[in-house]
Amino acid sequence: MSSISEKKEIQTNVQELTFGPRGIDLPEESTILNWVIEDFKNAFGKDLKFTNERQELLLSTPQGQLATAWAAIISDRNRLLAYYVNQVDPNYAMGRMQDGIGRIYFIERRKASATRVVGKCSGAVNTVIPVGTKVKDQLGNLYESIGEDAVIIDQDVPVFDEHNNYVLDEHNNPVTSKESCVYITFKCVEDGAISCPARKLTERYQVIPGWESITNEQDGEVGSDTESQAQFEQRRRLSVAVNSVNSVDSIMAELLNSVYEEQDHNGNIRKNIPICQDAYVTENSESISKTIGSVVLEPHSIYVCVAASGGYENEQAIAKAIWRKKPPGCGMNLTYPQKPNSHTVTIFDDSKDDLGNSLYSNPPQYNITYFYATTVPIQIYISMTRSPSAPKDARDQVKDAVFKAFQGGDGSVRPRIGSVIYASNFYSPIQKLGNWAVIRTLLIGRDGGSGNEVKVGINEIPSLDKSYITVNFDD
Fold first, then answer.
1. Hey, is 40 helix, strand or coil?
2. Which of 192, 269, 312, 401 is deepest in the core (most CB within 10 A)?
3. Cα 429 to chain center, whole Å?
4. pLDDT at 3
5. What is the pTM of this model?
């Protein structure tokens, strides 16, 4: 006994999606609903009513409920498909899809980094402060000391700046403290853009006999949040030159993609930590000295400025990144006496053949000079109209919004070395707080001045602390 089954083509009024010159074309939700209604009528008869005499949809009926539900499901599917279609475009990609595009260029999204601050620990001579000693700032943030070995409080110890570099006098000799103390670098136990202004790191979280006090004479080096969509895309665009050589773009890309590993406070190894938070590379191809952005460049030379955490601890990696990409025989702006913040590193050519053998029995050495960016504190002055609906913590909310926007936490691009920062950049983050956030004036400045914009030199990197944001409400 055999049976024959006929294959009937299933018909539907819901049309397939199409692709046009601008991408996927999505039908309107009302159009999808009309298609579904026609399918219902074909299935259950033309007498099935979906609208009243005024052509209003009868949502209270079973068929009305089902038709609108099916139309909504189809519309959601279409939007999800359109979302993923757009994710293949680097201009719109985000999250996991953007990470995938980044891996095509062999780059990874930068993870959040922790704030670092140099603390001056005072007390009795020969007091030992172990690695991992914890301290707390006045905002309740916890920090722990980093390094390979314990440190000992002593007299006449060198004084360090916020980058953990020696402070030098007019004769280039290290400045020493006149009291019994030691300078230790502390790192916040939580990652993110957590500020630590000068003289705010004051509490000893654990007691060590002989250790009497702690303070930070300089602002801490603010950490960063996980790289945002806009920041990652900007770095991806810059990194396309990473496979090239003999150009300023290739040096920039190599520096921004250089990473290292470190061990966190739980003993876990964190990979892909960026060495340079930012970099600026330019050149002078002329046969005479040339001033670019207030910096004098020597003839036929390149200029490299970096913002790097940890002071000189990654100097070899930075110098080799420059050496791998710079043109042969190009000058490095090495003049005597040395220019402010210039740093010269001696490296060796450790190139190897395909079998891993060194190309040289006596490797040649090179002197690579680059510059560390000077941190420039930015001040923001905001005058607002007081609204009856303003919350009690309105001032704090405004400060948080501006600080988050400056750090790139709202998806914007963080101000970089050599950039121009406009006061208008911070209007939108404040206005998004609500209708009560009415701005009268918003000015930005540096070095005590204020205006509509701030220009940062090619040897400077802007920094913002919440204590430098002034918010006043006018009645």
1. helix
2. 401
3. 17
4. 45
5. 0.67
